[in-house]
Amino acid sequence: MYKVYNPKLRELPLSIQRLGELAYNLWFSWNDQAKALFARIDPLLWDQYVHNPVRLLSEIDASKLQQLAADESFLQQYRAVMQQWDDEVQAPSWFEETYPQYKQQAIAYFSAEFGFHESLPIYSGGLGVLAGDHCKSASDLGVPLVGIGLLYKKGYFNQKIDTDGHQLAETMQYDFEKLPIAPAYVRSASSEPTEELVITLALADRTVRLKVWHVQVGRISVYLLDADLEENSPWDRELTAQLYGGNQDIRIAQEVLLGIGGVKALRALGIPTGVFHINEGHAAFLSLERLREQLDKGLPFHAALEVIRASTVFTTHTPVPAGHDAFPLPMFDFYLRDLLGAYDSHRGDLTQLGLDADKNVFNMTYLALNTAAIRGGVSKLHGQVSREMFRKFHGNIGAEEVPIGHITNGVHLSTWLAPELRELYSRFLPGTWVTSQANKDQWAGIDLIPAESLWSVHKQLKEKLIGYARANLREQRRRNSMPADLIEEVRHYLSKDALTIGFARRFATYKRANLVFSDLNRLDRLVNDPDRPVQLLFAGKAHPADRPGQELIREVYRVSQMDRFRGKIVLLENYDMNLARYLVQGVDVWLNNPRRPYEASGTSGQKAALNGVINFSVLDGWWEEGYDGSNGWSIEMNNDADWLTQEKENTESIYRLLENEIIPLYYNKGALPVQWVERMKRSIRTLAPVYNTDRMVMDYVNKTYVPSLIRTRHFIDNDCEEAIKVADYKQFILQHWRQVRIIEVSDGSGQARIAARAAQPTKEVTATVKFGAVWYKDTAVEIVYYEEQPDGWHQRVVEMEPSRVLDDRTVLYRAVIPSHLKHGPHFSVRVHPISASFARRFELPLVTTF
Ligand SMILES: *Cc1c(COP(=O)(O)O)cnc(C)c1O
User: Fold this and answer.
1) Domain extents for the chain?
2) Which of 179, 423, 633, 663 is the most exposed place for a label (fewest CB within 10 A)?
3) In this protein, which residues make up the domain named DUF3417 (predicted)?
């Protein structure tokens, strides 16, 4: 495979030849020295080309390169970076050391967007950045992950703000030859493959070809699919034009390309894949393609489904109902007609996998849930919310028993931590602190950093941000042809001494960017306090079809233009990973006030925390578990109140905390606010070891990938013997479960109850269960009751033991529970099917309750 695609980069002077290789490995994006090396080549061009090294090296004057190739000091820096790279690539990895036996098979990670770096614009926001960070940590940890996504010719969009605060969505046309990507090649015996890989798939009534591109991300590969080929019809060429662009037809077509095309690409590349990770429902069609493969091999439908389920992991990312893609059934029939036609007898089964019968649509989240044995949300609270949301699929069980877990999101440390802070931390933390970042002990040394040192680096980063923000505003005004004095005025905007609050994220309405504007007079008093001023920076894009989101941008803009807020509340344009780095590294406080519980996790606050920026947030998403009472601030409210009341309470809490705690703490003790710095340290020390993607990816490996590999192996050995057995068993149980009935429950409450209760803390409960054709040992009979604890009512489940087989269909069970419970609503008895081969306790939605 050619690592260096652009011919210009293959002609670099010999002494700096490997810069080409480095430019084609996104490893540079999380290595401060590599970035500094590229910046040194030409700092202005480096910025102008959004830190894209391929473009830089292909467009810069050859004479400049010749000059550097002979510059000993540059060469030294170059050699140091290359050495570091070689060392890192060859270093033994966590995965190899922990799971050497699972190296052979890839874990395929499918995502509609990947945010690796500003130079590769195939992301829109948090979901993409998370996917990028996931891949980077997988590389650092040596996890055999391979990413699958789409390559968007126009990216997402560049945001411009006009003089009325309107968002203008400028679409670009990217020249793939100038991005850090290269074609993937057809496998061949010769060492220099030359034929670019193009795969073919059926889409609706036609055939579409997809070119496969390769992105090197440290040690791992990501493959991106591109429909912009001459062989495709003009409208099909547009299918991969834009991320989240276009109508429902384009959306479903994109998802077919991603899911089905992605599996085909992996096969064409010859990558043996053990686990498929669906990162958000967009990619769930991959399960249908994999089902087809199993059916083609002759496996019965239900056994095929078992194989797929065993080897699929699904992460859901949003509790907002509209965030789950769903398509009208005729649209599903049309776009998947090739598959449905080939397996006409299973048309019903296939449709059923994503059917939302209430709305008569095919729901991608349902498809993912039904085809993945391991499913989860992205924070503890989001797991809880998802269990409630999808409870209806799992029979009559408590929400806490719904088999949906969570792994809380994190961020990639080396991507988001400021180089200046990295250097400072390195002086006080053990040498292994980066590679062992998920170990809390490694971070104890944060306390040893002298307050002056941390504060002085922080102030430096704040000044960098202010400089960058002014340039951003100046460019906005220049482009909007504002008068020269207004352009010049920007020089005086923002102060390095004022308490600085950052608010940047997608402008989705539930994120309530305007909440802090609820009482402008009160805000005015804070912002314009002569002794203790506050300033706010906003940034974020709204989806081009999201009118209310764009209205929020206008509102922020309007406020920023009011005389009393001019230069103190600013709206920066084109929020991307570059601007995000400046913001999360340079503000004092990171504000987040979503409508709870709509923020599934949120990650920008985690980026801020790494950098000693203190979180000030609603207890939603990750902050619900991250906040410990003294590592930031929580915006309070009554979770049970209606939205309007919550909004009022949130607003009041924001102002009150600012007035009474945040501002006084910041301005305490003049030039060096010791207590503030203490809080920064607490925030770093308690949050950085947990909310990083090394911890997150290790969790995914330990709790989802490896268990999936083990279970899949078990299922497919001996011509899928186990998968067939489990599928048959489930079919049998589903057919005969009607016969299972609990016919009698007794807790002896008829006899001398009062005396017995006083004397004994426990009582015996018996239940008589009739099983019909189902074998009683294939079930669990349980008592369920609720117990009051200081934090509310908790479900308790007590397994009942079979004590007597009454006849071949009826069994008497018994168990002992606390006697203060009375019969009736206080406890119930239930029976449900179990099997050692199930991935989880409630695998079938069959629960019979008495
Ligand atoms: C981290 C990041 C996000 C996600 O921020 P949230 O607070 O999780 O919404 C969005 N956009 C960019 C550019 C980011 O870097």
Assistant:
1) 14-89, 92-409+699-719, 440-688, 740-849
2) 423
3) 12-120
Q: Which of 144, 20, 141 is nearest to 82 (CA)?
A: 20
Question: Does the beta carbon of 603 sit less than 6 angstroms from any atom of ligand 1?
Answer: yes
Q: How many angstroms separate the Cα of 69 from the Cα of each of 8, 17, 44?
A: 15, 9, 19
Residue 669 DSSP SS3 = coil
Q: Which CATH class is domain 92-409+699-719?
A: alpha beta
Ligand 1 site-directed mutation target among 382, 505, 693, most atoms within 8 Å of CB: 505
Tokens of 607: 């980026």
CA-based nearest residue to 255, from 204, 211, 186: 204
Residue 392's contacts (CB-CB under 8 Å, 6 or more residues apart) are none
Domains 92-409+699-719 and 740-849 share a fold: no
- Tell me, using a 6 A CB cutoff, whether residue 128 lines ligand 1: no
Other C-beta atoms within 10 Å of 235: how many?
Answer: 12
Distance CA 834, CA 392 (A): 19
Q: Tell me the C-alpha distance between 304 and 720, whole Å.
A: 9
Give the domain 440-688 fold.
Answer: Rossmann fold (3.40.50)
In this predicted model, what pLDDT tens digit does every residue of 614-634 receive, in sequence order?
A: 999 999 999 999 999 999 999
Q: Is the CB of 318 under 6 A from ligand 1?
A: no
Could you list the mean pLDDT of each consecutive 10-residue stretch along the chain, which spans 850 residues?
80 95 97 98 97 97 96 98 94 96 97 98 97 98 98 97 96 95 88 88 97 97 98 97 95 98 97 98 98 96 97 95 92 97 96 95 97 98 96 89 97 98 98 97 97 98 98 96 95 97 95 95 97 97 95 98 97 98 98 95 98 97 97 91 90 97 92 95 98 98 98 96 96 96 84 52 91 95 89 89 91 90 70 93 93
pLDDT tens digits, one per residue of 247-295: 999 999 999 999 999 999 999 999 999 999 999 999 999 999 999 999 9
Tokens standing for residue 576: 């991307």
**Residue 393 · residue 405 · CB < 8 Å:** no
CB 505 less than 6 A from any atom of ligand 1: yes
* CATH architecture classification, 740-849: Sandwich (2.60)
Choose the residue to mutate in 317, 604, 622 for probing ligand 1, maximizing ligand atoms within 8 Å of C-beta. 604
CA angle 28, 225, 263 (to 5 degrees): 110
Q: Which of 603, 615, 612, 268 is nearest to 451 (CA)?
A: 612
- Dist. CA 340 → ligand 1 center (Å): 38
Residue whose CA is at the smallest distance from ligand 1 atom 15: 577
The residue contributing the CA closest to ligand 1 atom 8 is: 602
